[in-house]
Amino acid sequence: MLKTKLPTISDVALRADVSIKTVSRVFNQSPNVSDSKKQSVLSAAKELGYRPNHAARRLAGNKSFVLAHFHDNLNADYVSKIYDGLQTACTDLGYYVVAEKMLANSEGYLDACERYLNNHDVDGIILTPPVCDDIKLLNFLDEAGLLYARISPYQRAREGTSVFIDDQAAAAQMTEYLIGLGHEQIAFITGPANHGASMARLHGFEQVMRDAFASSSGPLILQGDFSTKSGFVAFEEIRKKNPNISAIFAANDEMAVGSLMAAYRDNIRVPEDLSIVGFDNSRLAEIIWPPLTTVKQPIQEMAERAAVLLLDSISANTPSAVQEKFDVEVTKRMTCSPILK
Asked: I need a surface site. Which of 51, 121, 135, 168 has the fewest CB within 10 A?
């Protein structure tokens, strides 16, 4: 049985021949909207059967005390740490947080986001990669007057609230660490192409490799999707294309663990025969054997801070433009060793 598509604020704007921002102003009872436009918007909404829930909640005294976290990430540990950080901030201030997976590459993705906001009362939205870099979604939220904060956006030039690390510099730091151990044949497993942080990590790796080995043909780069399975598959391709690789740098810990499992299967010793490193410092990185050398980013702390900043904006009922950078470090464990010459 097919579900009838619910009308969105975009549909109302199109029917009334006005902007989304004008529709939002009408439902928020904002000044400076002409009577003719107001009437057009209200008539269009009535004809379409549109219910402006997300606008109505912004009216004084009508808060929901709920934040939504929009994400599209295969990494359950990452999502869990984000939720823990958000919950810590929200609990202290009497708010609740709900996580909603939005498939950024799917058809109708933006409509799904808008339908969710039309049908659920939330006071603000937390966005994580790759959703936090979707320009169309950000434009819609801005025009609709919805408050949000971004965690780890790739495009940081845009105004608004965000917390982040320098992914490119962090990946460069790990690459320099590997080179310092004597590794020259290093492969990189990247994450999804639409994931800004993944691309920044790749750029950091490539830049250091070019600077260190200008005469080489370039490092071996394999495509992953942040899943353990993709790290396993990428390892197989690495061994086929260049069996002399002495180190693998995966753009997240799950792919690094996938490569580690594939190495075990092939009786390749880690770190004696091959060094493997990751990124994130997930819980898995600590419990796998041998424990994984990785880049530690403070995911939970970043999420908590993003929620605090967003709640400050909600309390003031106005967007903020606070952007805060967090530090990272290379956490050295047991999957890395120097090249013996």
From this structure: 135
Better pLDDT: 145 or 328: 328
User: pLDDT tens, 59-80?
Assistant: 445 677 889 999 887 778 888 9
pLDDT number for residue 285: 94
Nearest by Cα to 328 from 165, 162, 186, 217: 165
For residue 267, give the amino acid letter.
Answer: N
Burial class of residue 3 in the structure, from the number of CB atoms within 10 Å of its CB (0-12 exposed, 13-18 middle, 19+ buried): exposed
Parse the chain into domains and list their residue ranges.
Answer: 1-50, 167-297
Compute the distance between CA of residue 195 and CA of residue 152 in angstroms, rounded to an integer. 10
Stretch (H or E) spanning 92:
helix 76-92
Strand partners for 224? none
In this chain, the answer to whether the domains covering 1-50 and 167-297 adopt an identical fold is no
Query: Using CA atoms, how far apart are residues 35 and 221, in angstroms rounded to an integer?
Result: 59
Q: Which of 137, 189, 128 is nearest to 164 (CA)?
A: 128
Question: How is domain 167-297 classified at the CATH fold level?
Answer: Rossmann fold (3.40.50)
Write the pLDDT tens digit of every residue in 120-147.
888 999 999 888 988 888 988 888 888 9
**Alpha-carbon gap, residue 199 to 210, rounded angstroms:** 16
Q: Which helix (H) or strand (E) holds 181?
A: none
Q: Where are the alpha helices (DSSP H) in 93-227?
A: 109-119, 135-144, 167-180, 196-212
User: Domain spanning 1-50 has what CATH number?
Assistant: 1.10.260.40
β-partners of residue 149 are: 126, 161
Distance CA 328, CA 302 (A): 11
What CA–CA distance (Å, rounded) separates 175 from 112?
A: 39
Higher per-residue pLDDT: 317 or 88? 88
In degrees and rounded to multiples of 5, residue 77 shows phi and psi of -65, -40
